[in-house]
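2024-03-11 09:14:02 DEBUG pipeline.ingest accepted 1 chain
2024-03-11 09:14:02 DEBUG pipeline.ingest length=468
2024-03-11 09:14:03 DEBUG pipeline.predict start
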Amino acid sequence: MKFRYCLILVGAALPLCAQEVAVEAEEKDPKALQWNAGGDFRIRQEIYDRLPGANGNISKYNSYYRMRARAWGEVKNEDFTLYVRVADEFREYMRDMGHRYGETPGEIILDNLYLDIKNLFWDRVDLRVGRQDFIGRQGYGEGRVIAEGTPMDGSRSFYFDAVKAVIKFDDKNTLDVLGIYNSAKTFSLGTPHPINDGGYLPLNCVEPWSTGMAEWGGALYFKSKEWDALPFDLYYIYTQKSSYRLLNGTKMQGRTINTAGARVMPQITDTLSAEIEVATQYGAKDSGAIVGGQMGYAGLTYKMPLESTAHPYTTLSVLYMSGDRNRGTGRMDDRESDRSWDPLWARYTFMLNEMYVYRGIYGVGYWSNLVYPALEVGCKWENKHEVFATFGPMLTAVKDGVGGGDGALYGWFLRTRYDFPLWTGFINKEKKRGNLLGHVTAELLEPGDYCTSSKMAYFLRWEVSVAF
């Protein structure tokens, strides 16, 4: 029944795709209305065991399939675009998890719905209003501060409910002005089957399955390519998180955070490049207690100058996020200051680490209190094959004992991933419309003295996706 349901969703979008060729053939007058539609379907299996969590907790063996179907459509001309996308994701567990989360048919959600209005105010401003993604090509930097608006549902959705204005000073300098409000709920059709009885699948929580947290704020994000050898970003982000409740009913206080940062990407030589990002935070909890933290990243990448279709590279990097050994409990009566880094809207796999998101120490994808030097070796081919391996020790910035042990070493972490095309352009080869892709990934963590477990943790995944 579950796979039949997927095929129905995918099949329903195919007739729309078939009409695209005729529509594109008529694209002559830029003022004339054009329309397009398509969709994608993804299936992946994830297997993991012994992932370390807070207070010495260790996950049990788990294996399940995740199926996500999406359909989209748009109407546009040179002045505006109206875009809509709906999505559904459900799961098939290989063992009894004791809950109905992700059962068929799940809930169909409004994943994106936005209006683009281009070239306002003497062609200086582009405006996007509505539900939109800030990840991938629409993203900010490497996603260390803004990327994921709905962290609880994993990769089912990434959206923000936002207004974005892009001010174009010239061809090389732009300023993005963002206004964001992410509710704890979403518009949906169907039954979410959450793990608790809240009546909806929580999207913005920190602690797993907590409910009622909304996040809002705004950002100023300046991007400059004035100097080709030294592009840079400057940003300020205001974030406010409401109070929320844990699964057991405990009320947790919200907080207000101001974040300022900068990112530079110098091209040192034809083969050597670097990336440096630093940010600082200050703000307060609802109780008035001070919050604030620091984040820093430095990476050096060498790309071998080969005259071939293969492009191997090596990156040596270190990531720092401040911690606090006395950060408090976060409950309503907590007046303890918190000097640890708050990951804002980057509670996802920006380090390409799935383990931490599935079994977070401080919350769902809550990256904090970390020093991570790493070596990455990889290769990209012009035929779209990509492979890499990353290895390094994950350390705490301060010993806080949250992991259950008394040391500072999370553990030695290894991740490998291979992405590969299976069939490219099966609808329109010239326009590369219709792509069948796959990837496999594996993660291993040899726990250190920060954890109580001494057994190796692992995470495995394979995926096949089709987009048309």
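2024-03-11 09:14:41 DEBUG pipeline.report Residues 1-26 have pLDDT under 50 and may be disordered.
2024-03-11 09:14:41 DEBUG pipeline.predict end
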